[in-house]
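Need a sequence for this fold. Nothing fancy.
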């Protein structure tokens, strides 16, 4: 498969899984957390499909298109490892949805991130919180949900707190 095909598949899967997650959290209170703004594509999609939710974005360096940058109250700038554990007072209660799109494709980096990020995500979750991640996480008291039809296993990971 060419890299172009792979990128197209990834973007289609991302849209499908974000839409699926938005439906899953319909009755779950709380904001959405976007871990990794990047160029703002998935943030922009989230705000379109979750128009009534607050969305907090965590990013070390803003490089997104100016049209896809949230207002200053909803940007938490810095290393997620430093900011996420201390973001509770800013974001309020447990998040309804947490989307982690942080991978640079390096498997060792993914393993290291999985170790430090998993407990930080658990600390921001409550009953019914849905977590989507580009790499696997170790989330105690979460069930692993199957992906929407047509998304290859391992392309994304979907969890829900019991
Ligand atoms: C793959 S991109 C996100 C793409 C985004 N979902 C989109 O649709 O445009 C990952 C982003 O996460 C940020 N990032 C990765 N690790 C981070 C960390 N430890 N702390 C803060 N930001 C991080 C990178 O700077 C990058 O902008």
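Here you go.
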């Amino acid at each position: 498969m060419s890299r172009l095909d792979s990128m197209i598949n990834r973007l289609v899967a991302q849209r499908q899984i974000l839409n699926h997650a938005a439906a899953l959290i319909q009755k779950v209170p709380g904001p959405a957390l976007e871990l990794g703004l990047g160029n703002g594509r998935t943030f922009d999609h989230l705000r379109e499909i979750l128009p009534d939710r607050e969305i907090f974005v965590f990013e070390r360096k803003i490089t997104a298109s100016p049209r896809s940058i949230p207002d200053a109250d909803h940007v938490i700038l810095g290393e997620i490892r430093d900011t996420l554990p201390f973001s509770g007072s800013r974001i309020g209660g447990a998040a309804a949805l947490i989307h982690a799109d942080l991978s640079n494709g390096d498997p060792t980096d993914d393993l290291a991130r999985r170790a430090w990020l998993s407990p930080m995500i658990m600390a921001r979750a409550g009953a019914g919180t849905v977590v989507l991640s580009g790499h696997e996480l170790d989330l105690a008291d979460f069930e692993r949900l199957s992906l929407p039809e047509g998304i290859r296993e391992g392309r994304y990971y979907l969890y829900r707190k019991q």
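For context: Residues 58 and 80 are 6 Å apart (CA to CA).
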